[in-house]
Amino acid sequence: MVRHHRESVVFTLVVTLLAFLGAALMLVIIALSGAPATLGLAAVMAFLPVGPLVACFLWLDRYEPEPRVLLGSGLAWGAFVATAAAIVLQGVGGIFAGFDEVQAIAVVAPIVEEATKGAFLVLLLWWRRAELDGMLDGIVYAGMVGVGFAFVENILYLAAAYNGTDGVGPGGTEALTATFVVRCLVSPFAHPLFTAFTGIGVGLAVNSRSNGGRWLALSTGYALAVLSHMLWNSAAVGLTGNFILVYVTLMAPLFLGLVGFAVWLRRAERRMLHAALDDAARRGLLPATDVAWLVDLSARRAARRFAQQQGGDTEEEAMEEYQQAAVELGFLHHRYLRGTPPPDFATRGQTFVARLNAVRPYISFPGQVVPTR
Q1: What sign does the dihedral 296-262-137-135 (CA atoms) show?
Q2: Domain boundary among 196, 218, 240
Q3: Separation CA 155–CA 35 (nearest Å)
Q4: Looking at the structure, do residues 235 and 296 belong to the same domain, yes or no?
Q5: Span 261-270, mean pLDDT?
Q6: What is the largest CA-CA distance in the chain?
Q7: Would you tell me how many other CB atoms lie within 10 Å of the CB of residue 42?
Q8: Would residue 260 count as lying in a domain?
């Protein structure tokens, strides 16, 4: 656990430092992109899809919620680190490689942007692997990074559209509205969608039994992220036919397919958690009668309400602690049953069991005898 704590501290320091540096650079770039009133309007319009998108990813993440600090770090990385790094790298590439505008948009941008966004997922895999349990976690973190990236990028695109510096038209309200419709209403999912492929690769890498399998999963996920991004950008500049046709026949079905896959993974997590906790109960790690109250989301809510009624905030907090520890134990035990436990499996497992034993005497589930305090 000492090593895990040290790696967590290093991850936090690296991400925080890079986020501050990226934010400073992006604030300068945004400030130079238009008048304050224009930038304020662009920021408000760019923010509109952020809430619904974040809510969708939080809904996917309900069975084993990821730490809110890490999810916020993903948003910050996408908004500041990935955007700043992408701008710098594309600028350097344009200077030394001489890419024209079409090449930069269709080829260079997808390669660079998916690398800068995916770097956060790689850092999670490297230093915070304990927080990753599979593909759904990878999709959730990738989604947060993509939402943050799209938010800041949309501010720049909306401001450029209004100012007429986007090379498309004279600017003004009409251009701003058209850009808002395309980027914030029709395709707000684009960046989360692209990076989700890298997230799936990271999720597969976590459960891979060999280094070769991990590298294959990571490289394949990144390649698919770049490919889907290239197809999108190429359509935007007219290289792959009509943009609307590409959107309707390729990108929308791809998005709907990923949504369906994510929902299926969410349902699979419930079945997996039930099987893992059943096995853990047979091994004496927790009471078998508690399992049904831990694997169903509505049952968890009912248990917390019951705890609140029986003992107020103190017992509700104890119930939340018990639920969190049990769910984390279940996901860890699942990896053990699959034959891919993390190196610190035993220590982490003992910690979760200790947390369960510490609060179990002070809580009860509906229908059970309320413990004496």
Answers
A1: positive
A2: 240
A3: 12
A4: no
A5: 91
A6: 75
A7: 26
A8: no
Tokens of 284: 């004496």
Residue range(s) defining the domain that contains residue 356: 271-362
Half-sphere exposure of 324 (CA within 13 A, CB side): 12
- Answer for the pair 108, 101: CB distance below 8 angstroms, yes or no: no
What HEC string does 157-226 produce? HHHHHHHCCCCCCCCCHHHHHHHHHHHHHHCCCHHHHHHHHHHHHHHHHHCCCCHHHHHHHHHHHHHHHH
User: How far is Cα 121 from Cα 14, in angstroms, rounded to an integer?
Assistant: 13
pLDDT digit string (tens) for 275-334?
A: 999 999 999 999 999 999 999 999 999 999 999 998 888 899 999 999 999 999 999 999
What amino acid is encoded at 208 in this protein?
Answer: S
What is the rounded CA–CA span in Å between residue 366 and residue 261? 34
Average pLDDT along the chain: 90
How far is residue 224 CA from its own chain's centroid?
A: 17
What pTM was estimated for this model as a whole? 0.90
Quick one: which of 168, 167, 163, 138 has its CA closest to 33?
163
| Claim to verify: residue 225 and residue 283 sit in the same structural domain | no
